[in-house]
Structure formats: C-alpha cells, structure tokens
C-alpha cells in the first residue's frame, strides 16, 4: 500500500506526462487500507465515477455482511471512499453543490448535524424542487441552506471539511452521478488550493443571505 500510494503521489507531484485514469485508479484500488480505515488522505487523491454499484454498509463499517446474496459492493469504491471521508467530519462541513438527490450522502450530512457538526449548504435555486432533491430534508432537520438569486446557475460542486480538506470535481451528489455518469473528484488537504474555495464559500454565503 505505502509503495503504491507513494508512487501515486510522486506521479502527481512531478506531473510526469498526463495522469491517466488507469494510473490513478490503480493507486486507489491498491490503497485498500485507506478505504477501510475511513481516513481522508494526507495529501491528494483522485476518484472516478461511475461505480459498479453502491457499497455495502456492513462493509463500510468493517463488519461481515450477514446477507450472502447481498448485491452491494464489498470492495473499495469511489462512493465508499467519499462517504467514509465525510463521516470523519468533526467540527464543520460546507457544501456548495449544484444539485443533491443522493439519499446516502444527505443522510450523512443530517447525521453530522445531529451530532453537533456545523453543516452549511449552498445550492442552485432552480434545482431545489427536483424530484428526490434533499433540500427539504435538510431544512426539516434544521440544516442551514442558501441558494442563488439569479437566472444563472450556481454550478459549483465542492465541499470543505473542517476547513482543511477540499472535495472538488465534476461530481454532483446524485444517484446518476454515482452509478451512471463519467465523473471525477479530487480530495486534498493542500491549503494553497483550499483557501480560495473557503473564501469563495464565505463570499457566496454572505451574497445569498436571505
């Protein structure tokens, strides 16, 4: 694992040629312990979607699945890594997302809120009323949600965990993105990258104040 992960970081830091999906995904698949230990990366990692299926929740909790015919994934997956990363939030999470319909991801945010984590969500006004939109669930549970006020799109797709981990990419938090679309995510704790996103979130949070 350590060799594979160091190789991945070396390729990333030195920018040797272009990192292909095969390069990156091989490093991710070999980093099994990173998934199972539920830790966000110490540097930068790249995830690609779609996944073949959704991860088994027993597997995510490091417990044997009692269902021998379980159709969910019992191996590392991009969604599994993302979910485990979100679950490690301690103090705050800021989510700036075009659309969110994934119940799996929304349940994590609601659970974090109930544990006392500060959860703030910015989204696109026109997407709030989509079928399966989770915005009303957030508001019903007391989570702060703000939206844009123009006819243009609030098209960002990023989240900041505890002010020190950035999740950013093409990935909308939807079921279609998880198992259908070709999507990408970068998860990093590089502060040079995180600070502009933190500043932008605060700017939009003030701009979209009710």
UniProtKB/TrEMBL annotation:
<feature type="signal peptide">
    <location>
        <begin position="1"/>
        <end position="21"/>
    </location>
</feature>
<keyword id="KW-0442">Lipid degradation</keyword>
<dbReference type="GO" id="GO:0034587">
    <property type="term" value="P:piRNA processing"/>
</dbReference>
<dbReference type="InterPro" id="IPR051406">
    <property type="entry name" value="PLD_domain"/>
</dbReference>
<dbReference type="InterPro" id="IPR025202">
    <property type="entry name" value="PLD-like_dom"/>
</dbReference>
<dbReference type="Pfam" id="PF13091">
    <property type="entry name" value="PLDc_2"/>
</dbReference>
<protein>
    <recommendedName>
        <fullName>Mitochondrial cardiolipin hydrolase</fullName>
    </recommendedName>
</protein>
<comment type="similarity">
    <text>Belongs to the phospholipase D family. MitoPLD/Zucchini subfamily.</text>
</comment>
<feature type="zinc finger region" description="C3H1-type">
    <location>
        <begin position="55"/>
        <end position="77"/>
    </location>
</feature>
<feature type="domain" description="PLD phosphodiesterase">
    <location>
        <begin position="150"/>
        <end position="177"/>
    </location>
</feature>
<dbReference type="InterPro" id="IPR000571">
    <property type="entry name" value="Znf_CCCH"/>
</dbReference>
<dbReference type="GO" id="GO:0016891">
    <property type="term" value="F:RNA endonuclease activity producing 5'-phosphomonoesters, hydrolytic mechanism"/>
</dbReference>
<keyword id="KW-0862">Zinc</keyword>
<dbReference type="GO" id="GO:0008270">
    <property type="term" value="F:zinc ion binding"/>
</dbReference>
<keyword id="KW-0732">Signal</keyword>
<keyword id="KW-0443">Lipid metabolism</keyword>
<dbReference type="InterPro" id="IPR001736">
    <property type="entry name" value="PLipase_D/transphosphatidylase"/>
</dbReference>
<dbReference type="GO" id="GO:0005739">
    <property type="term" value="C:mitochondrion"/>
</dbReference>
<keyword id="KW-0378">Hydrolase</keyword>
<keyword id="KW-0479">Metal-binding</keyword>
<dbReference type="GO" id="GO:0016042">
    <property type="term" value="P:lipid catabolic process"/>
</dbReference>
<feature type="domain" description="C3H1-type">
    <location>
        <begin position="55"/>
        <end position="77"/>
    </location>
</feature>
<keyword id="KW-0863">Zinc-finger</keyword>
